[in-house]
Design goal:
This protein is mainly β and about 90 residues long. It contains no helices and 9 strands. The mean pLDDT is about 90.
Length: about 90
């Protein structure tokens, strides 16, 4: 679409699967849970967002986001600046 400062992705996580701890320097990220539940890790603290809950990950945080429970987790992911699945922009 030509956007230079935002990326929006809709994804599905299998139960027990998701991201390992990592950081996105220079990238703000919002994960909005559409269905199911996840365990949002932010600098070692955990929250369990369910449907209609958003979690904001700041560029300076170490984050993780695995699905929990017995069902799929559908999530809308919004990044600014675009992350574009570029492994060079991630710190693990």
């Amino acid at each position: 679409m030509g956007a230079k400062n935002i990326e929006i992705v809709c994804g599905t996580l299998q139960p027990g699967h998701g991201t390992l701890p990592h950081a996105h320097p220079g990238i703000e990220q919002v994960c909005y849970v559409l269905e199911g539940a996840a365990l949002a890790g932010i600098d070692g603290q955990r929250q369990q967002p369910g449907p209609a809950i958003a979690v904001i990950f700041l560029p300076t945080c170490s984050v993780s986001f695995p699905a929990v429970g017995g069902m799929l987790c559908k999530v809308l992911i919004i990044c600014s600046l675009p992350y574009e699945e570029d492994s060079g922009r991630v710190i693990r």
